[in-house]
Design goal:
The protein is an alpha/beta fold and about 350 residues long. The chain folds into two domains: about 10-60, Orthogonal Bundle (Arc Repressor Mutant, subunit A); about 75-340, Rossmann fold (3-Layer(aba) Sandwich), CATH 3.40.50. It is about 45% helix and about 15% strand. The chain is built from 14 helices and eleven strands. The protein has helices at about 15-30, 35-45, 50-60, 75-85, 100-120, 135-140, 165-180, 195-205, 205-210, 230-235, 245-250, 285, 300-310, 320-340, and strands at about 10, 10-15, 90-95, 125-130, 150-155, 185, 220-225, 255-260, 260-265, 290-295, 315-320. Helix 4 (about 75-85) packs across helix 14 (about 320-340) and helix 13 (about 300-310) crosses helix 14 (about 320-340). The longest helix is centred in the N-terminal third of the chain and has 19 residues, at about 15-30. It is elongated, with a radius of gyration of 27 Å. The chain starts with 7 loop residues before the first strand and ends with a helix. The relative contact order is 0.12.
Length: about 350
């Protein structure tokens, strides 16, 4: 017998046991039987406010516990680890049967298209980096949108190149604008100018200035991540540095690039005279984008991706399970090395 006159059974006062039984019953009716709160209130002759309060208490008392069972083909643990390790707002890891570049690009492109379709807000200004095959795969998978129309699709890296691949950069921008109901803003200059003086002359053009004025207004941007050596498409376009210049970047500590803006393994910008020849969004401008989404995967890009994530310019990463596992392992090894 307790001081208040109630009996104790199994270490729990009978009054509390009665309360918890009611809480449990309400939780069962709501979560298992699928009844609405108003129906529960009517059945038990309680107020709906009491039912709502009891449901919250069921969680507090541990009567109701949330269990998330990831469906096959999803990788929540990898996503959580990368998100927390690199301070990203979101990470999407896609399933892939082969650790092979073409297969990885296809899967990432599909996931990026879905991300764009479900998160695009009305009136957004979308930035897209030229010469990214993964972004091309994304655009190929986007469905025409009836709602969530964008205002502009803007090239964020110079899109002029060799005639045999010129249609790539133009197609990405024009097609995405068509699919999202936006106006295209082409960047009709090369990504890499012959010299600093040539860059300044090209950037003085009024149409170029008009496109660049939108860089600071971009709300959603998609960019690829590349290692030091240019991709086949980038090399063929002419928007790439020579082998000697790549060696110069490597000597300065560069491990990768986003839109030809290079950085080291710690995510610090690698600025050389070559940077003065690039016509496109800078790393600082990328950091200012509301949602800057990086699409990248593959063994030869893993180090470049890790460096990119440390720049502070990436908000969302979409990658494959093989690359995600390597990123986590790199992070673990780096932490172990730091403790030695």
């Amino acid at each position: 017998m307790l001081p208040d006159g109630t009996e104790r059974e199994g270490g729990v006062s009978m009054s509390r046991a009665h309360e918890l039984r009611l809480v449990s019953r309400i939780a069962q009716m709501y979560h298992k039987e699928g009844l609405r709160q108003a129906e529960i209130a009517q059945h038990l002759r309680l107020s709906q406010a009491t039912v709502s309060r009891m449901l919250k208490r069921a969680v507090h008392e541990g009567i109701v516990r949330t269990t998330i069972i990831p469906p096959p083909g999803t990788f929540g643990d990898l996503e959580d680890c990368i998100r927390s390790s690199f301070g990203l707002s979101e990470v999407i890891v896609v399933d892939c049967t082969e650790d092979r570049e073409a297969a990885i690009m296809a899967r990432i492109g599909e996931a990026a298209a879905h991300f764009l379709e479900v998160t695009l807000q009305d009136g957004e200004i979308i930035g897209v980096s030229s010469w990214s095959q993964t972004i091309l795969r994304m655009v190929e998978n986007v469905h025409p949108m009836r709602v969530g129309r964008a205002a502009y699709v803007v090239q964020t890296l110079g899109g002029l190149g060799a005639p045999n691949v010129q249609d790539h950069a133009t197609h990405v921008t024009m097609r995405l604008a068509q699919l999202t109901g936006a106006q295209p803003r082409l960047f009709s200059v090369p990504g890499v100018a012959p010299s600093r003086e040539a860059r300044e002359l090209l950037m003085a053009d009024s149409f170029v200035q008009e496109t660049m004025s939108l860089f600071g207004k971009v709300t959603l941007s998609f960019v690829g991540i590349g290692p030091l050596s240019p991709s086949e498409m980038l090399a063929r376009s002419g928007n790439a540095f020579s082998e000697a210049e790549i060696d110069q970047l490597a000597g300065a500590g560069a491990v990768g690039n986003m839109s030809l803006r290079f950085y080291d393994q710690k995510g610090q910008p690698v600025r050389t005279r070559l940077d003065d020849r690039v016509i496109g969004m800078t790393l600082d401008e990328m950091r200012g984008v509301g949602r800057h989404v990086a699409l990248a995967g593959g063994r030869n890009k893993t180090e470049a991706i890790a460096g990119a994530l440390r720049t502070g310019a990436v908000d969302v990463l979409i990658t494959d399970k093989f690359t995600a596992s390597r990123l986590v392992q790199m992070q673990v090894q780096g932490q172990e090395h730091a403790t030695l």
